Amino acid sequence: MKDWTAVCSLDELPRLGARRVARARGMPVALFRTGDDRVFALLDRCPHKGGPLSQGIVYGDGVACPLHNQTISLADGHARAPDEGCTPTFACKLEDGRVWLDAEELAAKALDLQAPVAGPCAKAQA
Length: 126
Prior knowledge:
By secondary structure, the protein is mainly β. It has helices spanning 103-108, 120-125, and strands at 4-9, 17-21, 29-33, 39-43, 57-59, 62-64, 71-73, 92-95, 98-102. It has a single domain, classed as Rieske Iron-sulfur Protein, CATH 2.102.10.10. It is built from two helices and nine strands, in the order E-E-E-E-E-E-E-E-E-H-H.
């Protein structure tokens, strides 16, 4: 049986928009709300160049990465052809107007993935 954590109300998640959920460890999780009020959760990281998916444009059941317009399926985290790659998904549910995430996944999933480093500091780390 899953242990669920309430993260926000549906009203706090803009229709055709997103918000970030910070975690104690690891990169944030991005919550997405579709035009028909379905809710999805992905790691807030595009598989292409690490762009913040929470800042992308939501349409249908996908999100376009704000960096290079790569489209990611909200249902399974896979890039749509001709693009390639996948970002981790997180179990979520909508119940009584609240958005819930699987507490175990929130605490332990995808902790090994790093946020991209851009700009002048990227050269210093290379």
